Amino acid sequence: MTRLRLAVQSKGRLSEGGMDLLKKCGLRFAYGRDRLHQRAENLPVDLMLVRDDDIPSFVASGACDYGIVGENVLLEKQKGGGKPADLEIALRLGFAKCTLKLAAPKEGEIRSIADLEGKTIATSYPDLTRDYLAERGITVDVVEMSGSVEVAPRLKIADAICDLVSSGATLEANGLEAFETVLVSEAVLIRRKGEGDAEIEAIADILKRRSEGVIASAQTKYILLNAPTDRLEAIKALLPGADAPTVASVAGRDDVVAVHAVCRERVFWETLEALKAEGARAILVLPIEKMLS
Ligand code: PRP
Ligand code: ZN
Fold first, then answer.
1. What's the pLDDT score for residue 32?
2. Exposed, middle or buried: residue 71 (CB in 10 Å: 0-12, 13-18, 19+)?
3. Where does CATH 3.40.190.10 sit in the chain?
4. Distance from the alpha carbon of residue 209 to the mean position of ligand 1, in angstroms
5. Best residue among 128, 154, 161, 170 to mutate for probing ligand 1, ranked by most atoms within 8 Å of CB
6. Within 6 Å (CB) of ligand 1, which residues are found?
7. What percent of the chain has a predicted confidence (pLDDT) above 70?
8. What distance in angstroms lies between residue 58's CA and the mean position of ligand 2's atoms?
9. CATH code, 4-94+187-217
10. Is the predicted pLDDT of residue 34 greater than 80, yes or no?
11. What is the predicted pLDDT for the residue at 35?
12. Structure pTM?
């Protein structure tokens, strides 16, 4: 029987989120010793646990059918030309969000990309960095490093760096300050362009549909509250991304109604405080486990 071979990162920034997504998609894996290969028990999917740098070329060469990889890695490999150029994003996965940024020592004179002309930049993304600056008419020397890029300015290996930033803690700890965003990235599901094997694509469709449901439900919440009848319109207007809330009567009360709504946008504390200020009471925000529409 045909099984879809899916490449995921074995360890690093995407591995936990990737496995978490697959588990939420209902995939069960036998607890095995094999760290390279895992077989789903309840869907014809085999995981190949590999280094993220290798994922684009494994999918491009046909060793794997699909892969979960950071968009940053995908785009860097695609700039390099060759087979990864034939890859496409099948689905954006909404986790492992980060940015690729240019940064330089806080106290130094580099404050914008114009200051980079003729300077040396350390990065694990040489093609993305060089192209981004070349498109803006700036020529730099690029020193490629496979990790610990943030130490390069202190070691006088480079004047500035181009590196991934998520919390910003690494830059802060190394006395660096970002001044330009080169790329905004997240985890993506990739495949080879073109038609593909029909059976593989049928399995991929199941995975994609379930992933979409997981991604949508992650930020969707179910809100329940009691609203003063005369403030109902104002309260409905405050509910983030709710299509048509259900309004029900509250037993024994005609001054208050119960409102139930599915909110498709993040619900912040500020929203709840604004609802309360309009007179809403007994506000509950519940997670939604699964969604299929
Ligand atoms: C990235 C990046 C920084 C760090 C940034 O490294 O190169 O070192 O994460 O994250 P922060 O803004 O939350 O501090 P990664 O974890 O991918 O490992 P690597 O440096 O070994 O490539
Ligand atoms: Zn790093």
1. 66
2. buried
3. 4-94+187-217, 98-185
4. 31
5. 170
6. 13, 147-150, 163-170
7. 99
8. 23
9. 3.40.190.10
10. no
11. 77
12. 0.85
β-strand partners of 191: 66, 88
Distance, CA 107 to ligand 1 centroid (Å)? 22
Range(s) for CATH 3.30.70.120 in the chain? 220-287
Side-chain-side CA neighbours of 106 within 13 Å: the count stands at 6
The tens digit of pLDDT for each residue in 63-86 reads 999 999 999 999 999 998 888 889
pLDDT digits (tens, 9 = 90+) for 264-277: 888 889 999 999 99
CATH architecture of 220-287: 2-Layer Sandwich (3.30)
Give bridge partners of residue 163 from the DSSP assignment: 101
Query: pLDDT tens digits for 154-202?
Result: 999 999 999 999 999 999 999 999 999 999 999 999 999 999 999 999 9
Domain 98-185: CATH architecture, name and number where available: 3-Layer(aba) Sandwich (3.40)
Ligand of minimum distance to the alpha carbon of 163: 1
Atom of ligand 1 lying closest to residue 172 CA: 14
Phi-psi region of 96 (alpha: psi -120 to 50; beta: other; left: phi over 0): left
Question: Measuring from atom 18 of ligand 1, which residue has the nearest CA?
Answer: 147
